[in-house]
Design goal:
By secondary structure, the chain is α/β, with parallel strands linked by helices. The protein contains 7 helices and 11 strands. Bound molecules: glutamine. It holds the Pfam family GATase_3.
Length: 248
Amino acid sequence: MASGEAKPIHVLQLYPRDMNIYGDFGNALVLSRRLQWRGYEPILHSYDPEDEFPEQVDLVIGGGGQDSGQDKIQQDLLRLGDRLHALAEADTPMLMICGLYQLFGHSFLTREGREIQGVGILDLRTEGTDTRLIGNVVAESKEFGEILGYENHSGQTYLGPGVEPLARVTKGEGNNARDAHEGARHRNIVGSYLHGSLLPKNPAIADFLIAAAVANRYGEQIQPSIEPAGSAQPIDELTRLARSTATK
Ligand code: GLN
């Protein structure tokens, strides 16, 4: 399809200035490229505190950050609360990683005892600890198969009954050091602790988000697998390379 004819999909990245560590921006790149391969035009909006909120939003992503970065964006995030709740309830696909995953929950009690209030879209809460959970993670998801990524967080997250775990950890820790749960699922929202970034290693999650965005916006279905036109390597090889470093 010529680019002039491609249908736009608006991807909103929340707080890239403060919430974008360990390569989380790779998630925006993967979504953009996989949308293009399917003939859609990705339009990436970056939203930082006090920016104008875009009129059209088809997919929302957010990354991780230091506790201090979470402090900086907290008030603005709460101000966006109603908008984000409305998008979530309209089944807008969302991917929230680590720091923003925590703040999509009810609260994050930092290890210094400061409470950072979350936006409460996901039924979960987080407590800071003195032990950082660091390293590669392997987890099994019924929906997405084997998920690989990298975690580095002091906050430990506990899920409430309003969400399902994204996956069961077989290596590493995930949400906390106790229950072998990694991430959370609710409506079309995926929350996860995994950086690396997540989507290059786990394209099934990227395609889930894209499929939901395209279905909501245009009532269209995407093909489950794709051959990238003009790419030097098939996607399977790229994915294999991304994943090959992730299990050590
Ligand atoms: N600051 C949070 C924590 O340490 C989130 C870290 C992150 O996004 N990697 O738990």
